[in-house]
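Exercise 7b. Backbone tokens:
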């Protein structure tokens, strides 16, 4: 299939371009290379050194024997989006091109507004360009499990059955996002659903859990083909950050009691699931929601898994509690349902310890790079708008 990846230079996008090419698909994509700037704005960099655009293009051609049609440009520019789709004529568009960090979006008014304008505009432009140029193409749109918030009931895949005042319907499950970034994703979900009704577009809205991992098994070792791995408070996701902290002997930074739960999946599963979604498209007018994760854990459980795997390979890993800079429930029910992906062939990777071991061994090679940015490991972006570094809390150890 011909697959256009919007956001192809990012953590998931660059890995996906290679994975899908290995699966026999013809890939093209676009990116404004902004993730590189956002991380630099946080005074950080990827723990794994990443190649520049030209080096990536040359390495891709050397590895796969084909030029990658990767256009550098801003997808908030409608003419650019339209031209990309006119030239490539994709069967599927995987839309990853958004600003993906909750803390970055909570920095201040400027970052909140920019996040929502950027994310909602790229999505609307892609929806319009599909309608105008390739109306049969299937949109695989990345949302996040964070759109649902922390409801005290099971989390269905997008819709649920409701009975009210004696009548029944299948309705949109309420979204209750916890940051300006997550709210932008909720708006996209609504907009995407709307276009399947008014224009008969076909769309899969992926409610993805938190991804972790430095690589997937078939990824080439060429350093110019490696994808990024961030560890700063904004762009480092939980397990990735914990592993970076573990290799430099910094305590793992649990926010509050750390008992809040999230859904997670390794990078290899994210690649597999996105490919399954592309290869099994939605029908015209269909809006599907996939809850995309392997397992859910509390953050404190994960911290102790990282600690025990670290000990196996000789790392002395401490776990400490810090006052929580976010506004979120720390004790809550959490039970997301995952059926749609299983139905089309997804078998989750459940051996999280082995994945974490691969990551730790990988990141040890880049210990000095992480150590040089050690001052960034404790968060200071707070949901109340202030900027104060979180202080250590004296809480008893909850899980071992
Ligand atoms: N990584 C995760 O754990 C995770 C979890 C759930 C959902 N997601 C979603 O998956 C998608 C990809 O995540 P990621 O971790 O690869 O993020 P990323 O920041 O590494 O990738 C996004 C890419 O999109 C590009 N981009 C953003 N706005 C653009 C614009 N206006 N024009 C052109 N390019 C633009 C960025 O430069 C970046 O390279 C995001 O939508 C994110 O919200 C990620």
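Sequence design result:
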């Amino acid at each position: 299939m011909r697959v256009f990846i919007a956001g192809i230079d990012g953590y998931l996008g660059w890995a996906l371009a290679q994975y899908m090419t290995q699966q026999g698909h013809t890939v093209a994509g676009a990116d404004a290379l902004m993730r590189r700037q956002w991380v630099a704005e946080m005074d950080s960099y990827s723990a794994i050194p990443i190649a520049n655009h030209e080096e990536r293009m040359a390495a891709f051609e050397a590895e796969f024997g084909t030029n990658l049609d990767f256009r550098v440009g801003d997808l908030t520019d409608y003419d650019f989006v339209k031209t990309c789709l006119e030239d490539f004529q994709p069967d599927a568009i995987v839309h990853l091109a958004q600003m993906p960090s909750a803390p970055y979006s909570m920095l201040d008014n400027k970052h909140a507004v920019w996040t929502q304008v950027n994310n909602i505009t790229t999505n609307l432009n892609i929806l319009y360009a599909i309608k105008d140029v390739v109306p049969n193409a299937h949109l695989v749109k990345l949302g996040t499990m964070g759109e649902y918030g922390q409801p005290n009931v099971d989390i269905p895949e997008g819709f649920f059955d409701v009975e009210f005042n004696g009548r029944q319907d299948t309705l949109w499950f309420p979204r209750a996002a916890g940051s300006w970034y997550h709210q932008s994703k909720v708006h996209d979900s609504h907009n995407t659903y709307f276009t399947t009704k008014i224009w008969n577009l076909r769309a899969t809205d992926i409610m993805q859990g938190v991804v972790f991992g430095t690589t997937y098994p078939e990824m080439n070792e060429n350093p110019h083909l490696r994808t990024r791995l961030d560890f700063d408070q904004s762009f480092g996701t939980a397990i990735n950050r914990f592993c970076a902290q573990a290799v430099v002997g910094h305590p793992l930074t649990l926010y509050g009691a750390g008992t809040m739960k999230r859904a997670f999946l390794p990078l290899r599963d994210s690649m597999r699931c996105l490919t399954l979604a592309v290869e099994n498209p939605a029908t015209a007018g269909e809006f599907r929601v996939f809850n995309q994760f392997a397992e859910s854990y509390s953050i404190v459980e994960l911290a102790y898994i990282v600690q025990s795997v670290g000990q196996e390979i000789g790392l002395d890993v401490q776990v400490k509690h810090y006052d929580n800079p976010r506004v979120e429930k720390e004790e809550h029910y959490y039970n997301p349902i995952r059926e749609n992906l299983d139905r089309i062939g997804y078998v989750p990777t459940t051996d999280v310890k082995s994945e974490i071991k691969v990551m730790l061994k990988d990141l040890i090679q880049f210990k000095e790079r992480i150590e040089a940015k050690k001052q960034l490991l404790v968060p200071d972006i707070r949901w109340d708008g202030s900027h104060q570094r979180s202080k250590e809390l004296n809480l008893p150890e909850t899980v071992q």
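Instructor comment: The pocket of nicotinamide-adenine-dinucleotide is lined by residues 7, 9-13, 31-35, 74-76, 96-100, 118, 122, 142, 144, 208, 210-211, 237 (CB under 6 Å). The chain has 13 helices and 15 strands.
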